[in-house]
Amino acid sequence: MTEKTVTDAIHFRRSVRVYSDEPLDDAIVKQCLVNASIAPTSSNLQLWEFHHITDKSILQKMAKACMGQNAATTANQLVVIVTRKDTWRKKAQANIAHFDKVFKQPEMQKEMRRKKMVTNYYGKIIPTLYGDFLGILGALKYMLFQLVGLFRPVYRQTRWSDLRVVAHKSAALAAQNFMISMAAVGYDTCPMEGSDTLRIKKILNLPRGAEINMVISCGIRKPEGVYGERFRVPFEEVYVKV
Q: Which of 39, 59, 74, 237 has the fewest CB atoms below 10 angstroms from its CB?
């Protein structure tokens, strides 16, 4: 299979809402999810999970939870992008463990100052940002950082709601990596907003701290599966050169 160039894949990708019965290769879809996992992510925390659904009975339940829309009912497979902000401690420790190995390499022995910076970042700064209790600490941090911001540039996204947005932004970047990777191999996708996220969490048996970022249907398009020509407002309306 010859993969498309990035530009060709971007132009090939459309939100497909009706799929054929042609099956997908699970291994290829999984590789596209591997590509998703190397997307940029805030502080390299990787607060995401990728649920690859191929089981027919689960697909039927998911289609119902996705309001019975064609993109879900005709999909060959589904991928659910899940944010896991609740795993920040585990992911911070994983980064610390990774850099401990990196700085043990002979050529890195002279970089102890950098090691200290990394350890402080994941051991102190990340807990300061992500640590919270019922939203109270987040509100206090927000007020403190706004006060500091009167005198110098400062990071201001410190509330629980702010960090939710950060996690969802990173997950969306991963989702785009996945969809472009699928397009590159001739597979189609559709990111679906219309879904009952609470029901989806129950279907996937997700913990309370998990959140649904998006559900992506996957398959091979039928001609009628693309609803008309692509429309975008004139680029000049959204492009600002500073």
A: 237
